[in-house]
Amino acid sequence: MNTKPKKLSSVDIARLSGVSQATVSRVLSGSDGVKAATKEKVMQVVKAHGYRPNAFAQAMRTNQSAAVGVAVSRVTNPIVPEILEALTRSFTAKGRRVVVWNTDENGQDGLISAIRSGLVDGLVFTAANQQSEAAKAAHEADMPLVSINRSFDELDCDQVVSTNHQGAFDLADYLVKCGRKKVAFVNGPKDRTTLADREQGFREGLRAAGITPDPDLFFSRPFKDNAFRQLGMDIFGADNPPDAIACGNDLIAIQIMNGLKAAGCRVPEDIWVVGFDGIEMAGWDIISLTTVQQPIELMANNAATFLLDRIEGKRTETETIQYRTELKVRETTGFTPAP
Amino acid sequence: MNTKPKKLSSVDIARLSGVSQATVSRVLSGSDGVKAATKEKVMQVVKAHGYRPNAFAQAMRTNQSAAVGVAVSRVTNPIVPEILEALTRSFTAKGRRVVVWNTDENGQDGLISAIRSGLVDGLVFTAANQQSEAAKAAHEADMPLVSINRSFDELDCDQVVSTNHQGAFDLADYLVKCGRKKVAFVNGPKDRTTLADREQGFREGLRAAGITPDPDLFFSRPFKDNAFRQLGMDIFGADNPPDAIACGNDLIAIQIMNGLKAAGCRVPEDIWVVGFDGIEMAGWDIISLTTVQQPIELMANNAATFLLDRIEGKRTETETIQYRTELKVRETTGFTPAP
DNA sequence: AGCAGAAATGTATACGTATTCAATAATATT
DNA sequence: AATATTATTGAATACGTATACATTTCTGCT
Fold first, then answer.
1. Which is it for strands A218-220 and A244-247: parallel, antiparallel or unpaired?
2. I want to staple A304 with a disulfide (CB 3.0 to 4.6 A). Which of A66, A90, A111, B246 is the partner?
3. Cα torsion for B315, B317, B323, B324, to the nearest 10°?
């Protein structure tokens, strides 16, 4: 074991290259007004020692952390990693670090604390429930804020959403047009605006197609204890089961299918199933779930751009942008793709 | 729009509560030697203004960031979010923030830069390829390091792994004992030690069971372009296909099954398929993949503990801990669970 | 009451950087 | 060549916190 390498500072670099600390700072921040030869000399030393400026000192001095936060919940929903990956790609491409908070565990205290302590320059909220303490805290702290796949009624911030209402409306229409007579809708907790919007759209779609929504066919369950799997079994086990089940999102649909399969129900022969989100695995051959697809990558990119522009002061007006969803018909509604 | 709230500092809190800045600092860091009444008074002001110490100033002063990094790659492999969630749970429960780096995109530059600039106090590496610049940089920077589900030959750091070799060995034995005559093995890039170990174990398991591994039945593909789906189609389409396909991990197995299904092959009637990892969705009824399960939650917790102990200087010797894997037999190898 | 010692608080400083302002070196102008 | 101008560089400072050290305020004891 050799002696501790002793972390270098810009002062050390300055000494080693025979210039002042200020000059080192100028070289590293790429400001002009520094002679090419000097820059060269300093960079040489920097490279040689693998020196990097202390991020915290930088952050403190500039009041900019170069990091953005992403608040997620329900990571087990596969759409979350998909959003996360797209966001991360966008942000890191633009030189920002990404700090992720899972607001399931430990509540939102950690996130709120992080907001107040200035750890991030901005924040993206992904689909979750409405009344968010953290969002309020961020707003009060005057922190740039973007919501993706979720709408805040009270909070004035940029929002990137998809046509949840219309997509569900069209979905209902599709099912009825295809001759489904008895259509159920399975949803998660309705304090999630995304889920609530979809259910509302679906109801209206049914009515528009001439069917009065039957309250007994609208279900809501929490995201735990395998509730949706159990529900799938129950639905198939009941007398006179529906001939189609639409779900608030793809994960719900998959869990419903688990229950159906466990109960011996064949999809689509006995019951059709459709989801909403368009997660990647919905397209897998072994799942082949009909769903309403959102352009996740686009939405995430847009959210990232919104946030960064706002952080950099390029935008002041808040804006809501809505992306068009697309119905993807697959095998769970009887459509067999060409081989 | 009201006037800017003007971020408060400990100096402001001190002034507002009629004490010195040092006392404010003492109150907030919970050090004793502060009169109860004073503490009360200060906390009152702190609460009233929602003040939180500036994390960067704190980090700079203490040389501790209170954050740990997690380096991941291939986020699209569902095991990654599972590991991530478990790690996050552990770390946040212990008061640490988690910063995630995806080393797929943008290479490892961002991560290396973060290491050198002191952004995190420690780092967890999850399964990826062997020759990691970032790991080397971390080691050089004298940063605590833990690898999970991956082994470094060269680097001296704590490691949390599972019995990849033995698990695969037993798996081969199981398949042969069940009467499979012609067993293929499909793997990803073998610079991932985890995948390499499994393949090696599988080979030896076959031999031990009296079967000479046939080089034509060992496949390796990159994680892109749907290569495994294509391979699944090709394998079933070939003359005299195998009667079982073992895979380097669950995601590969699922993609192989996609290809098999697309080619009209029934699992398990025509071909058995087994995976490795034990991701959650392998247990779903609609997938029901036989696999070798790792105790991900335990492994993640252990990794977190290792890292924190090392950061806090409680450990000096590096250690490798190996968790036992467990064969989970499901429908893709013909076993139908009780209803 | 007086004093020693402990408890509580205040003062001063350092962390590593970016930046303002002053000083110097280089260049252009006459 | 002398001066005006500009291009570089250096010195000094502030950011917000934690902590070593100095100082003050309490306590208990004789």
1. unpaired
2. A90
3. -140
Is B59 inside a domain boundary? no
Residue B208 C-alpha, separation from nearest chain A C-alpha, in angstroms: 34
Report yes or no: A66 and A55 within 8 Å, Cβ to Cβ.
yes
The answer on A261 and A170 residing in a single domain is: yes
State whether A60 and B56 contact (CB < 8 Å).
yes
Q: Of all protein residues, which has its CA closest to the C1' atom of D6?
A: A33
- Is the same domain home to B137 and B156? yes
Is B118 a domain residue? yes
Domain count, chain B: 3
- Same domain for A158 and A300? yes
Compare all CA atoms of chain A with the CA of B56 and give the residue at the minimum distance: A56
Residue B273 in contact with residue B329, Cβ under 8 Å? no
Residue A289's Cβ-side half-sphere holds a number of Cα atoms within 13 Å equal to 28
Distance in angstroms (rounded) separating the CA atoms of residues A201 and A164? 7
- A158 and A168 fall within a common domain: no
Q: Are B183 and B172 contained in the same domain?
A: yes
Chain B 204-263, residues with CB within 8 Å of chain A CB atoms:
229, 254-255, 257-259, 261-262
Q: Is residue A237 part of a domain?
A: yes
Strand partners, A162: A323
The Cβ of residue B239 has, within 10 Å, a number of other Cβ atoms equal to 4
**Strand, coil or helix: A31:** coil
User: A288 and A224, same structural domain?
Assistant: yes
Residues B301 and B279 grouped into a single domain:
no
- What sign results for the dihedral spanned by CA atoms B308, B313, B315, B320? positive
Same domain, B188 and B108: no
**CA nearest to A6 within chain B:** B141
pLDDT tens digits, one per residue of B11-33: 999 999 999 999 999 999 988 88
User: Is A336 within a domain?
Assistant: no
Q: How many residues make up chain B in this entry?
A: 339
Average pLDDT over residues A113-124: 91
Residue with the larger pLDDT of the pair B206 and B115: B206
- Structural domain range at position B259: 164-294
Q: What is the pTM of this model?
A: 0.90
Q: So what's the pLDDT on residue B3?
A: 42
Nearest to A258 among B60, B102, B286 (CB): B286
